[in-house]
Each structure stands twice: as structure tokens, then as C-alpha cells.
Amino acid sequence: MRYLIWDFDDTLGYREGKWSGALVDAARVAAPDLALTLETVQPHLGQGFPWHNHHLPHNHITTGEMWWRELMLPILEHALAGVGFGTDDARRVALQAREEFTRVERWTLFPETLSVLERFSAQGWEQMILSNHVPELPRIVEGVGLSPHISRCFNSAEIGYEKPHRAAFEHLLSHIPAGSTVRMIGDSMVADVLGAEAAGIPAILVRKPHPDAQRYAPDLAGLFKILEAMESGEVPPFIEPAPPA
């Protein structure tokens, strides 16, 4: 068996504005009289997320509601307080931000994503996702049209470990037959590449070049040459980003 393990956010798709955008969208709905912009809120969202503390497991959390209540909403409320929101308004906007961040129509696939996954499916690869994400990730994956090609989503919000924690990858491997060919693909050198390779999974970096990456492609279409080289035992090509227009 051959398995491709994909990161999701910024690898297969993205949400415009990320968490800052979700807070701005939420403020427009929940507190329209209180102005909020990406520029004002971004500096308050640079730390504290579960994936920023990937060395700390949270496998005591057993439901999506607990995950939001214990791990995420306090971070969002703290950020809103940092830009001047009162306690009640901060709580109201943070709750609405959950709705805005998980709204499927706000998520967009990269142009080549669907055709690349279709081609890998046709080649016989079983494809899974291992992502540091919100509990609603499976619904987002289905909503953007990837479900026909993704057999399973492994999500840090459910398994209790954030990449690059070794346990996140070991959890995934426990669901794959021993002796299978497994490859990890993601945009983060630390979370996806170093995390996977520490667990014995060869990895390919995409979209965001890094000087220490042994295998890199600027987009998903470049993966075919790299994987073919890995399958044949050749040195995989390091595909350079296109020069700026």
C-alpha cells in the first residue's frame, strides 16, 4: 500500500485572512459598531495557539466544544481585549469567530489541488490528511470537494497532539499497515517535514522554500517528479520557485 499524507491549511487550501480575518468578519456581525481591522488584531494573534505549544498534549479534551472552550476562545478573547474590546463584546465576537472561521464558503483550494489529488488517486495512492486544525476540519474538507480523494482526516483537535509532536505521526501510523510506503507533504518545515521525518516518514516541503529542505516543490504539480524519483531510489529533484514576474 502507498499513502500520501497531506497537511491541509496552506498546503491544499486556505482561508483568506486566517484567524485575523475571522475575527474581523465576526466583529462585523456581532459588534458592528466596534471597528476592527486586520492590521490592529494581527499583532495580538502571534502566540498561544495549541500548535504554538506543540510540546504540550491536550488529549484530555474529548469533544469539539471542549476544544473551543478551553483552547481557542480564551486566545481570541484575549486578542480582542488587546485592541480595546470589553469583556462582553470580546466574548460575543470570539464566539462568532468560530462560525466565521469554519464557514465552508470562506475556504479556497489552490488552483491545482483537485486535479493533483485526482491524479494521485488514479495512480493508486491512498490519501489522508494530518493537520493542526479545528474540530470542524472534516466538514471543511467535504465542503471544498476533497472527500472523494481523502480516505481519512487525522486532526490535532481530535487526537490531542499537534504536529510536530511525534505522537501525532505515531497515531497516524498506527492506522496504516506496517511496511506501507508513506510520504508526508506540507508547507511547514518544522511541523510537516521535520516532524514527519523524526517519526520515520519521508517528507516533501511545498509552497514555502527552506534552505534545509531536501525535497521541495513550489506547488503541488511539482510533486510527481519528486515522488517518482523517491520511488525509483534516485535523488529527488529540488524544484526551484519560478522567478518573479
Radius of gyration: 19 Å
Number of helices: 10
- Helical proportion? 40-55%
The main sheet comes to:
6 strands, parallel
How would you classify the helix and strand content by structural class? alpha/beta
Overall spatial form = elongated
The CATH H-level superfamily of the largest domain is HAD superfamily/HAD-like
CATH classification, class level of the largest domain: Alpha Beta
Oligomeric description of these chains:
single chain
The fold-level CATH name of the largest domain is Rossmann fold
What is the CATH-assigned architecture of the largest domain?
A: 3-Layer(aba) Sandwich
Strand order within the widest beta sheet: 5-4-1-6-7-8
Instruction: Please indicate the percent range of residues in DSSP E strands (runs of 2 or more).
Output: 5-15%
* Tally of strands: 8
Number of domains: 2
Explain what this protein looks like in three dimensions.
Strand 6, helix 9 (189-198) and strand 7 form a beta-alpha-beta unit. The longest helix has 19 residues, at 64-82. With 245 residues, the chain is an alpha/beta fold. It has 2 domains: 2-13 and 108-232, HAD superfamily/HAD-like (Rossmann fold, 3-Layer(aba) Sandwich); 15-105. The relative contact order is 0.16. Helices cover 41% and strands 13% of the residues. The chain is elongated and about 60 Å long. The protein has helices at 18-30, 38-41, 64-82, 87-101, 113-122, 137-143, 156-159, 166-173, 189-198, 223-232; strands at 2-6, 13-15, 107-109, 126-131, 152-155, 181-186, 203-206, 216-217. The strands form 2 sheets. A 6-stranded parallel sheet has the order 5-4-1-6-7-8, sandwiched between helices. It has a two-stranded antiparallel ribbon with strand order 2-3. The chain is built from 10 helices and 8 strands. The model has no long low-confidence stretch (mean pLDDT 94).
